[in-house]
Amino acid sequence: MSQKKKFCTGALLLLLCWLGGQVLGEISDDFSHCLDFFYNKTPPKGIDSAGYQPICQRYKNQYHFASLYHRQSRAPLYSAYRLGLADGKRPNNTWKYEPQLVFSRASSEMTPFKFATYLDQNVIESQAMSNDYRNSNFTRGHLNPSMHQKTKENRQATFTLTNVVPQRAGSNGGSWNGLENEVLKRFKAYCNGSMHVITGVLPYESEPLRINNRVSVPEYMWSAYCCPSNRSDLPAHMQSFFPTHAALGRNDPNSGEEIVPINVKAKASKRGYDVRRMSLETLEGILAQRLAMSVSLFHGQCQ
């Protein structure tokens, strides 16, 4: 038996062998490798780091966005990115996982499931799997949506399970998709420079809901953007949307209406998946209450 084959006998070490023996691990307790995706290179303040893993989302040897991943919930709390106008169509869904969540010396490159001939139990325990979503009645809801990314590689990189959460179809393909398109139009029409976006989730306050008894389902989705340089001739009806704005959407039609009221006049397919537009300060107040953390999403409130 060759020395390399002997090296690949352990379960975790097999993971390195699938990746050609690469040792590129860089998992850390901060976002130091990908600060450009945050306004003023400053991640959100006030979030208790216990249980969370910062991930600089790397694909084809390039960083594309950042995610704060909760290991126990097997789902991200948020993803942060710079919005770009897509130069092509939505790519084919090639879903990926993160070897570096398993073993600190494993590859920092997200890896397509189809390239894995063997999935170590430690991989399965560390993060969500494609099988978790099968027959779950939930879609894979992007926090960083592919069509908010400029290049093909940028868009492909969003198809990692560390960037998605279980989202109801009525939200993902309905009201929340409408919000994403709305933000994209504002960026194209009124933002002169970079638009930094952070999109995340709010878990249930009471007993957690999970799919496959593994992956946490959010009760609400939230998003906020920062565009510090915008057109000086903003129309009056657009002035309240810059330099920042935020929104919070329902992911459960049976939730109470304290945070997001239900529009009874909405189409049946969208009813209960309403999205409430709000100021950045209002969203941060809701996050502070629900997460029990004093959260500041953008350094200096994007001023």
Task: Itemize the secondary structure elements and their pairings.
Blueprint: H1 3-7, H2 11-18, E1 52-59, E2 62-70, E3 75-82, E4 96-97, E5 111-112, H3 121-126, H4 130-133, E6 139-142, H5 152-157, E7 164-167, H6 169-190, E8 196-203, E9 210-211, E10 215-216, E11 218-226, E12 244-250, E13 275-278, H7 280-291
Antiparallel strand pairs: 1-2, 2-3, 3-8, 4-5, 6-7, 8-11, 9-10, 11-12, 12-13
Structure characterization notes:
The protein is of the alpha+beta class and about 300 residues long. Helix content is about 20%, strand content about 25%. The strands form four sheets. It has a seven-stranded antiparallel β-sheet. The protein has a two-stranded antiparallel ribbon with strand order 4-5. A two-stranded antiparallel ribbon has the order 6-7. The N and C termini lie far apart (about 65 Å).
- Spatial strand arrangement across the major sheet: 1-2-3-8-11-12-13
Annotation field: number of helices: 7
Mean pLDDT over the residues: 88
C-alpha Rg (nearest Å): 20 Å
Question: Globular, elongated, flat, extended or rod-shaped: what is the shape?
Answer: globular
Distance between the termini: 63 Å
Largest sheet: 7 strands, antiparallel
Q: What structural class results from the helix and strand content?
A: alpha+beta
Instruction: Give the helix proportion (percent range).
Output: 10-25%
Question: Percent of residues in beta strands?
Answer: 15-25%
As residue ranges, the low-confidence spans are 1-25
**What is the total tally of β strands?**
13
Q: What's the order of the H and E elements? A: HHEEEEEHHEHEHEEEEEEH
